[in-house]
Amino acid sequence: MSKEEALYLELGQSIKGAEESQMFGKHCFKIHAKAFVCFFENCMVFKLNGKAHETALGLKGSKLFDPSGKGRAMKEWVQVPFTHKDQWKEFANAAFTYVKT
Asked: What are the residue ranges spanned by the domains of the chain?
């Protein structure tokens, strides 16, 4: 397991109420059967809105999540590279709160 994936799992498992699951064949965490984070290409991907979405997307190397690679990005989902790992927990908590409500 890579250090990126290990951190992703640690963060997801630390969120009370988060359930491990799958989305598009990839590991994810859900709340109330709705995904709020997943792991893709050694990045953590977050379902965000508002200021958190804007902040995450503004980070160098971040982009809208396009799991198919066919130019059909998921507009609420932001793929944040490991270089910004210090902010992953903040974004994971924001994603959890957003999807939970």
From this structure: 3-100
Q: How buried is residue 37: exposed, middle or buried, by Cβ count under 10 Å (0-12/13-18/19+)? A: buried
pLDDT of 67 higher than 90: no
Categorize the per-residue pLDDT at 76 as very low, low, confident or very high, splitting at 50, 70 and 90: very high
Ordered alpha helix ranges (H), the chain: 3-14, 50-57, 88-100
What is d(CA 49, CA 71) in angstroms, rounded to the nearest whole number? 20
Tell if the pTM clears 0.90, that is, is over it: yes
Residues 6+ apart with CB under 8 A from 47: 35, 36, 37, 76, 77, 95, 98, 99
Which residue bears the tokens 């980070």?
59
Rounded Cα distance, 86 and 88, in Å: 6
**Residue of 27, 21, 69, 20 whose CA lies nearest to 44:** 27
Region 3-100: CATH code = 3.90.1150.30
